Amino acid sequence: GREGHPGRMALSGLARTAPGAALSSAGSRCPALRPRSEPPRERALPLPAVFVMEYYKDMIWKGALLFLASLVASIFYFRATKDFSVFFVYGMLSGLWLVVSNVNKRRLLINHLKGIYQFYIKGILWQEGPLHQIYVRLVAQRDAYGKLFYTLIINGYRLEVLTLAELSDKFEQIQALGHRVARNLNLNYFDYEDVSLRHVIRHMPPEKYEEDEAENGENVSV
């Protein structure tokens, strides 16, 4: 489902980063990989040792707006009819649920010293994984007239989609921003097409036999 752009973000890291949904669920498989080298025309910036992003999901503001709108509408409806509307009561309950369920702060930590990322909700570790499981991706959506609009997200295994840019029809600008963010964070970058020469792969997943060997290494005898 499509995600909105986060309401507030607080960025902290050891290097400069570019400030900044949609896609299948966070556990979905990555698109087909076609490794490609980065263009040599740009000088690489020093990589951050640890990058931390703290933010609230934008659903909290949408929920608050829905709750207030339903509350005001129900007041006017009650004054006019001396009765309550189930529709407005449902709107208030839905808005309140969105606020409560998204009120906890999110934290995304990318640790290049250990080669892992960590995702926290309310200070509790929700997911930790290797860097090949998190990526920056350009996402395209088509309107009713067939015109493409583009946005930029960070996504990965058991991550909530984090939108970095609003929908725009300026493909070159969003693509350039995506390359810059992925380069500065040292993450994989994927184009909006599953099979594309514009993918930039910096972290390859281990080969299957290496994973099996790591899992069953204790039972292997020479």
From TrEMBL:
Record region (Disordered): 21-40
Listed Pfam families: TMEM249 (PF15158)
InterPro entries per UniProt: TMEM249
Claim: Manganese is one of the keywords in the record: no
Transmembrane segment boundaries: 59-78, 84-104
Key words of the record: Membrane, Transmembrane, Transmembrane helix
Keyword Endoplasmic reticulum: no
Name of the protein: Transmembrane protein 249
Species assigned in the record: Varanus komodoensis
Lineage of the organism: Eukaryota, Metazoa, Chordata, Craniata, Vertebrata
